[in-house]
């Protein structure tokens, strides 16, 4: 990925170049966020206890891990909502272009992408809060045993 800021004298980026850079960085950030949320869920899973039942075994988690686990799941749901919304917007635009036989550039209102931007911000927030809550939950729940 190239730096979007060109060296002095190379000229400004075009809108198309800037959009390409934005898409590349956004995709990379979303991938890292998604993997980090899954890693947080995996960390919570490390503290599960399997209880043998009469019919089936059950995985139980300490109650103090409910908050970080919920935040990681909300992060993944916000990620899914962002991509589902953007996919739907672009599908509708493509349908309109096909129906009207337009091949020109399409300009969307700026507020069309606000729900996706909100979902992106929420997934970052949920991830950060999940990783802030996780060590507190582990520490306060006395889930780590030190010593003999």
Give a verbal description of the structure.
It is a single chain. Strands 1-2 form a two-stranded antiparallel ribbon. The protein has helices spanning 15-45, 66-100, 114-140, and strands spanning 49-51, 58-60. It has one domain. It has three helices and two strands, in the order αββαα. The protein is 63% helix and 4% strand. The protein has 148 residues and is mainly α. The mean pLDDT is 84.
Briefly, what is this?
The chain is mostly helical. About 65% of the residues lie in helices and about 5% in strands. The chain has one domain.
Task: Chart the SSEs and their pairings.
Elements: H1 15-45, E1 49-51, E2 58-60, H2 66-100, H3 114-140
Helix content: 55-70%
As for the number of domains, it is 1
Please indicate the percent range of residues in DSSP E strands (runs of 2 or more). under 5%
Distance between the termini: 50 Å
- Kindly state the number of beta strands: 2
Gyration radius, rounded: 22 Å
Q: Write down the oligomeric state.
A: single chain
Task: Indicate the low-confidence ranges by residue numbers.
Answer: none
The shape is: elongated
Coarse structural class: mainly alpha
Order of helices and strands: HEEHH
What's the average pLDDT?
84
Count of separate DSSP helical elements = 3
Task: Tell me the strand order in the biggest sheet.
Answer: 1-2
Give the biggest sheet: 2 strands, antiparallel
């Amino acid at each position: 990925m190239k730096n979007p800021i060109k060296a002095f004298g190379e000229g400004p980026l075009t809108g198309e170049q800037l959009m390409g850079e934005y898409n590349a960085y956004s995709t990379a950030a979303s991938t890292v966020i998604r993997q980090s949320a899954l890693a947080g869920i995996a960390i919570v899973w490390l503290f599960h206890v399997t209880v043998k039942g009469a019919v089936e075994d059950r995985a139980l988690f300490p109650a103090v891990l409910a908050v970080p686990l919920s935040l990681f799941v909300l992060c993944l749901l916000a990620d899914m909502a962002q991509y589902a919304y953007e996919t739907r917007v672009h599908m509708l635009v493509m349908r309109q272009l096909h129906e009207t036989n337009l091949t020109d550039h399409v300009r969307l209102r700026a507020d069309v992408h606000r729900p996706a931007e909100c979902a992106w911000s929420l997934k970052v927030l949920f991830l950060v809060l999940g990783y802030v809550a996780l060590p507190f939950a582990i520490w306060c729940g006395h889930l780590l045993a030190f010593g003999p």
